[in-house]
Amino acid sequence: MGNKRVFRAEVEANIGAVIRGARVAAGMTQANLAAVLGVSYQQVQNYEKGSVRIAASTLNAIAGLLETPIGDFFEVGLSKAPSRSDRCNESPDHDP
Predict the structure, then answer these.
(1) Which residues contact 9 (CB under 8 A, 6 or more apart)?
(2) Could you identify which of 14, 16, 42, 83 might form a hypothetical disulfide with 50, taking C-beta atoms 3.0 to 4.6 angstroms apart as the criterion?
(3) What CATH number does the domain located at 2-81 have?
(4) DSSP labels for 12-39?
């Protein structure tokens, strides 16, 4: 269970880093993005720190506003997760 929490935290931190990078590249402040989203700048700050989970609908809105493909928010986190085939390959019952 602990590994899942660590992985979730890494994914949330990655999402936040992508939000921040895209926001800065777009020349927006946290307050600008917050105003468009209808949240406080502190909420945007929390998204960027990865300290709160972000709703899929909010992430989709941010992706659209910042013209960032939704997949970009997950690339680093997903590359660290073991795929189903990787887990199968670790099983002693798996025949290659």
Answers:
(1) 50
(2) 16
(3) 1.10.260.40
(4) HHHHHHHHHHHHHHTT--HHHHHHHHTS
